[in-house]
Amino acid sequence: QPNEFYKTPAWRKLRLIHLKSNPLCAACEARGILTDCTKYRKGAIDHVISIRLGGALLHPQNLMTLCASCHARKSKLEGQGLLLPCYGEEGERLPGKDAKEKAIQSINTNSIC
Question: What's the pTM value of the predicted model, to 2 decimals?
């Protein structure tokens, strides 16, 4: 069950490390907007390759910071069939070439936070 994963000590530690290094929403930043995601409930650490599509759970390469609005938009786009290039085995898939850029472009083309 994915929700249980987000309660694990391993995820909480990795999330804090990632957020400390990457406090700004990647999609907003690409538009020149500096959205600080360190505030309570202001953002999410997103799995670029979704867990339900076999994305690596705890690999830093599979993470990016998104504000709540951009994260909701990406999730909606994934539900509508957004597929990002990836490689690796089920459960360990990592973003392929330009996957993060494609995700950011899709978020920014289809909505504004």
Answer: 0.91
